[in-house]
Amino acid sequence: MISPDEFARRRQRLMTEAGDESLIVLAAAPEKLRNGDSHYPYRQDSDFLYLTGLSEPEAVLALRRGRDSGEQILFLRERDPDRERWDGPRLGLEGAINQLGMDDAFPIGDLDEILPGLMERCRHIYHLVGKDAQLDRRIIDWRNRLRAESRDSHGPGEIVSLEPLLHEQRLVKSRDEIRAMRRAAKVSAAAMRRAMQAAGPGTNEAVITAELFHEYTRNGCPPAYLPIVAGGANACVLHYIANDQPLPDDGLLLIDAGCEFQGYAADISRTFPVNGRFSGPQRDLYEVVLAAQHAAIDQVRPGKPFEAFHEAAVEALTQGLIDLGLLQGSLDENLSQEHFRRFYMHKTGHWLGLDVHDVGDYRIDEQSRVLEKNMVTTVEPGLYVDAGEDIPEYFRNIGIRIEDDIRVTDDEPENLTSGVPTDPDEIEALMRS
Ligand code: GLY
Ligand code: MN
Ligand code: MN
Question: Are 269 and 256 in contact, with CB atoms under 8 Å apart?
């Protein structure tokens, strides 16, 4: 559980970095209609969640350094017994102060009235420029109103993107964030183990998808993204999400799925034989990907550039493809010509956190950024073999990805998702059990 103190510290740090004479403004995610009167499940905006811990729509956070009657201000829906009978409980103004640690709270309906006043004597307004067109517009309107109404003020001169400050802060995880990520990883690994045990001849992608969702839901964890449950050749469609086909008895099943806990995501991929035993060619390819993953994880250490683990994976995959006869020529030649791209067309990882593809720069001043303790990245090499005439028949249409969530530590990389095996013998044993 992330404490109200931690949320308050995050807001404090952001204010300090934005400097005096700054106002920071962020809005909650709106509810979204799916069709008719039915909504999509509500998911708070990750930036707003990071700074407030609030999972309600119709709220705005304003941070104003030096404001006498409180610096951390939340606008939100008031308690309303009639509405709460239909839609469930609301935190309300008192809850914002007592439970979220805000200094001050106002009804969301008073936003237009109060916000221009918070801009007085500000030089900068920080917000996520371009993220929410409605908020972009309202910030200009508030500033114009302040200019029109006050005789001695031009209103804040500068509207600044909050993104660099906030996303840099989100990139390095706190102890409690890592705890939440371990929990998401543990539930996601349990779901993946269930999927392995449920698969077998005669099953289909939909049944396996239901196993995943059952395990997430009973643990109170929503899926972090649409899972990929891809049997046989479907695994070569990188963003396959139909998940509705019968499984080939002698094929592989690639699953890429994870849930979130308190907003923090896990992201796991495993590939295993539907019938519980890898064929020779399946195992040959699988072991190339696994060796690439091991080589890559070993590079996830403080002081290493982010790109180092991708380079390690590419080198191991390329050598494996040469050994299996899928690429010809020398390692150096294949690497410099990037011939691996025919079989491996994505990067080896991405930051992980409140977003599955989490925020934070990968490059700084045109250099790969250096890993630091408590950054979390996925490591997910794969191979996707097409059905070209030059490919031996037994390798055609095989797609394999192995993905784990790795924390940078002072010491050995911590694999958050080690609760589900990657070793082919261990996978076969689990499927038999
Ligand atoms: N599940 C999306 C990804 O692996 O990046
Ligand atoms: Mn991923
Ligand atoms: Mn994934």
Answer: yes
End-to-end CA, the chain: 34
Query: For residues 1 and 258, what is the distance between their CA atoms, to the nearest angstrom?
Result: 19
Q: So what's the pLDDT on residue 183?
A: 98
Segments of the chain scoring below 50 in pLDDT: none
pTM of the model: 0.97
Ligand 2 is a single-atom ion; what residues have CB below 5 A from it? Answer: 267, 378
The secondary structure element, H or E, covering residue 338 is: none
Beta carbon of 356 within 6 Å of any ligand 1 atom: yes
303 burial type by CB count under 10 A (0-12 exposed, 13-18 middle, 19+ buried): exposed
Q: How far does residue 403's CA lie from ligand 1's centre (Å)?
A: 9
**What is the rounded CA–CA span in Å between residue 219 and residue 201?**
28
**266 vs 113, 262, 412, CA distance in Å?**
41, 11, 20
What residues form DSSP beta bridges with 399?
384
Reported as a single tens digit per residue, the pLDDT across 360-376 is 999 999 999 999 999 99
CA 125 – ligand 1 centroid, Å: 34
Q: Which atom of ligand 1 is nearest to the CA of 257?
A: 1
SS3 401: strand
Contacts 24+ apart (CB under 8 A), 277-284: 277/428, 278/424, 278/428, 279/250, 279/394, 280/394, 281/392, 281/394, 281/395, 281/398, 282/252, 282/398, 283/424, 284/324
pLDDT at position 150 is 79
Nearest to residue 370, comparing CAs of 318, 288, 300, 297? 300
177-207 tens-digit pLDDT: 999 999 999 999 999 999 999 999 999 999 9
- What pLDDT is attached to residue 137? 95
Specify whether the backbone of 325 is left (phi greater than 0), alpha (psi in -120 to 50) or beta. Answer: left
For residue 153, what pLDDT is reported? Answer: 66
Give the position of tokens 């995880």.
Answer: 173
User: What pLDDT score was predicted for residue 148?
Assistant: 86
